[in-house]
Fold these 2 entries.
Entry 1:
Amino acid sequence: MTTYVYDFTQGDKDRADLLGGKGANLAEMTRLGLPVPPGFTITTEACREYLAQGDEPGELRVQVTTALRHLEDKVGRRLGTRRDPLLVSVRSGARFSMPGMMETVLNVGLNDESVQGLAEEASDERFAWDSYRRLIQMFGATVLGIPADVFSSALDDAMTTRGRAAGDGPVADVDLTAQDLRELVATYRGIVRERTGRDFPQDPREQLDLAIRAVFDSWNTDRARLYRRRERIPQDLGTAVNVVTMVFGNLGDTSGTGVAFTRDPATGAPGAYGDYLQNAQGEDVVAGIRNTLSLDDLHRIDPLSHQQLLQAMRRLETHYRDLCDVEFTVERGHLWMLQTRVGKRTPAAAFRIATALVDEQLITEDEALQRVTGEQLASLLFPQFATEPSDDGAASRALTSGMAASPGAAVGTIVLRSEDAVAAAGRGERVILVRRETNPDDLGGMIAAQGILTARGGKTSHAAVVARGMGRTCVVGAEELDVDEDAGTVTVRASGREPTVLHAGDEISIDGSTGEVFLGAVPVVSSPVERYLEEGLDAVSGDGAAVDDETLSLVRSVDRLLRHADERRRLRVKANADVPDDAARARRLGAQGIGLARTEHMFLGERRGLVEQIVLADDVTERDIALDRLLPLQRDDFSGLLDAMDGLPVTIRLLDPPLHEFLPDHTELAVRVAVERSRREGGGPGELSDDELAADEKKLAALERLHEANPMLGVRGVRLGLLVPGLFAMQVRAVVEAAVGLVRDGKDPRPEIMVPLVGSVRELQIVRDEVESVVRGVTELAGVDLTIPVGTMIELPRAALTAHRIATEADFFSFGTNDLTQTTWGFSRDDVERTLFSTYLDNGVLTISPFETIDADGVGRLVRIAVEESRTTKPGLELGVCGEHGGDPESIRFFHDAGLDYVSCSPFRVPVARLEAGRAATTDAPSSSSR
Ligand code: ADP
Ligand code: MG
Ligand code: MG
């Protein structure tokens, strides 16, 4: 027989899958001997069965009866009886805490009879009727589905009536008399009858069963499903239900209820911290119905309960070895613990608490590393708004909010068109690009803007994905915004408020970490953690650094955990950088080399003409002239990069992008030629000279010859190198000459040559021979000794599947997981992210974009095959990854497990990768970070 019900004395904290988080921790507190009211937990399995079958398993009813009878015997009372009734709460509690599910129902078991018994037992009539009205209110709203405000407005009316009777304004709920509450109960029961067509159920067991069922059903509400989809919580876990003996905080001023934390969850500062409310029940504390008291106040009011609470919290912190939060109730001077869990915290608090616990010798440094995440570190690196914006209402005010899509704090004037953003940025102005949604044409504007704000779209919309990719602050889906590009206005339509009309040129501030949007300029400060990473600890802790103790403590914690991660990690961390400034920055942030230096951008601008000449040349001399002119320019590029990374490896990838990016626009050229021809045919004077026309015609013919239907799968990478003789040789020569020059200056350059898009070992062999002969030629002539490793990207499935062969010609592999994902899935990234992904994420084909986190089952399998098979032919082969996945926490864990030697990511992700590589090395089991 399946056990569907566990008494609190039977469970423990490690069974959260079955008992839910709340149930598992209630059992754990019971085991610890803390004062938890007796109760039992109905398992998530029972919920799954119920949902599958549409009915409770028969055994469940029986087991609930048994558990209830045990409970009644233990406390010496019977559920809802006339004399001294047992009352219970029915509380949902899934594996992960989930707003959007059913609320708790308190005081189950009260009816017209037992309310009398409760009053007699407590010698407090008012209390009994207060409890009864609360039951009908909670039961009515959450079990019977009556809108909650129907009850709260009846309550408001009662408070107004009482106040008027006293010749005053409305009073608080505690001022209602027993008689008022008795009348309110009658009103509430009338509401139930009217709304549901039947009376409020008087049978205590029926109340209990209906409440349990309602908790089960709440697992599948739209709200709950949506929440789980967003948080990537599986849809099939089900929720547990906890049935707990009621204890009462609403028994006058010697009673009360509160929440507390063992440390400050906002800053991580040591010392217990909490809120308390006298004569209150359940969620009154957090609902803000009256002003709360502090724990110090509790100490004054009831020193004994205060002391017991602090002891219990200390006990919990010792036991869980982490920050815990608790819910507690004091019933006439007696403390009861109603809930605990390892508490949520801000990123800053996570770092400070982790190192504080190491200092207190409660956890090891390895464990401390598990308590923080790369994402938390990343969020500490972004600039921040200096103060709570609402404090200085004069300069700025909250306008609206959307989804936090890419963190950071950005201030600028509104522009509605990408061209305008580019133009404004050219004039040195700071702008925020505000659009309904963005598309690939907005790229230029997005680069030029300080931040991006859209009215539509979610966290995987074009704006969100692109902004995150380039580290630009972004808020998406601010639905109250109505963006009218033609009128040049942005209208904010918040319900219940007059619309606010903004114009292009108005200043706004957006917070990409919270999704908030403000009117006006909120002051921005650079992050102290960022300052520390770039300039060292002294920059923050030295005299005149002017940071407060809390900030200093945070920076010290980050420093300590990063250094520990560096000691423990097996993966090296390199950066993707193509220009000396980025390389230097990456180096300051801890990069151990450059894993990917792209050479594409070096061929843009004025140099493009030269490349065009190389590609279209129809005789060797013409091509050689262009190559000769490019050589010194490339040499300078590489020299700067190698110098910035002196002593560290720099992997230079030979030219990769598709051919057409270097050629003139076909349509434009075709039109020009056609117009000229028709002019001449019409007998009129031409606009071009004969030579010009001939040159254009030649180009046009070449373009038509080279036209590709699908350039991403066409002539690019190594294919281009083999098609255009001399191109790769020139690049390699530039690299070697740059290195030779640096050696002569007494430096230690470490270039490596990487060949892109190889699919067959023969391709690599041909290029490798060419590279080696150039290297030999240049170094022998210069009399300088240089070894330059030659390796390849693994970015085609065929490369991964023939890795054992390709390895024979390679000194290293670097997994280009961006293209490997495109070619494995057959996805064209820019196209599918825009059109397909939101549907695929909604219907569960994807749980996350495979371009963000590596698709372990598919693309990852190719990586594993390539790792394993390449090392059979070449055991010491150096293996790394240079796709954007190199900076993604979950992917880093995968690469660690797969046995790679390094990850390479964008410079600003380097600290994140260092931390995550350390975390991966200090756990065996892959653990998704706490939700
Ligand atoms: P949530 O998950 O929203 O916190 P809870 O199940 O913890 O919901 O309950 C809501 C409120 O009711 C909390 O303040 C809790 O402490 C209180 N509560 C729950 N069960 C009892 C009980 N048996 N006696 C007194 N208060 C209770
Ligand atoms: Mg709640
Ligand atoms: Mg709770």
Entry 2:
Amino acid sequence: MSFTLLKRGLRPNRPPAPMWREHPLQDHYDVVIIGGGAHGLATAYYLATVHGITDVAVLEKRYIGSGASGRNTAILRSNYLTPEGILFYDESIKLYENLASELDFNVMFSQRGHLTLAHTDSSMRTMQWRAEVNQIQNVDSRVISPAEVKKLVPFIDTSDRPRYPIMGALYHPPGGVIRHDAVVWGYARAADAKGVHIHQQTEVTGIDVEHNRVVAVQTNRGRIATGTVLNATAGWCSLIAAMAGVRLPVETRPLQACVTEPLKPFLDTVIVSGTFHFYLSQSDRGELVMGASVNPFASYSTDATLDFAEALAGHVLELFPSLAKVRLLRHWAGLCDMTPDFSPIMGTTPVDGFLVDVGWGTYGFKAAPVSGKRMAELIATNRTPELIAPFAYDRFFTGQIVGEKGAAAVTN
Ligand code: PYC
């Protein structure tokens, strides 16, 4: 045992140093970011580190990471369908690959490979399509046979017993899982160290706009004058945008997920089955982390429902019958802001100084580093980076949509 470890072990129990500080709420900030999730905190971090803009407040109505950042199933991948989406998520994966050393914080990114199973002729065609578009963009992604699936996942049933037997899969080796809380905490700590103010329990109650320009944000703790506001919320993005008079083409749907009791490690890839409506991975703690599609109705409820758990379990057991006796441990829901084309809305809005990084549907966590970096660039330079230009708000008026529904983990 090293001397330092021994010294720490013998030291009287001291509470760990806080990872970010509390500050009084100032009555002015250069930039106000609404939403203390991975996107908002990443934007604050890149504003401070890359652009030297540190007079920044991140406002979070509960605690940081309490929204979609802490409620997703932590899957990362870049095997999308559109060239715009693939380039964008590929930059995110590259940033994630380096994030632990950049933040000096272990975010536990495990690039264990990602398998999207195909059970029908039409999904085989879509997988082939995705593989080809991915390869053109230099993203490692290929269609593999059921025998290769079995080699990667010995416990999966590749026989013709399941209701929809496995016909092949899209294999994406760079995909994997990450510790989502660590990403939030790592960005928060690094942003705080650069002077960003993180305000938890600070709810936005209004946005003041004068002559079509943002001038202030109203909160439950007071008014903040500012010329730049970024809406980086998930679940509430259309309500926040409405405060500035901006209407978003977004419908909010709950997405449920759950984990089982811990098991010995047996699964070291991420498994997705669109036909059976589930995705599954095993966490470092041994729990199986599972989810399915969004609820079939718009709602702000984060209730977990028995029929979801029942259906999910039935579908997982089709391909993993040996899990029949495994018990569920936790079950929760998060809120997903769905856009008509399943792509996000990033950039400026018709209101000067009011920017958005919203509408992430079920893809948001994967994009936190790249959207943070590129939104920070937009705020700092007043120029929209090429990588995010296709996701502009006005595409819904010009008709230049970026249809990414075909790359959804499961059909929504
Ligand atoms: O797009 O990979 C995905 C995903 C998994 C869970 C929700 N979305």
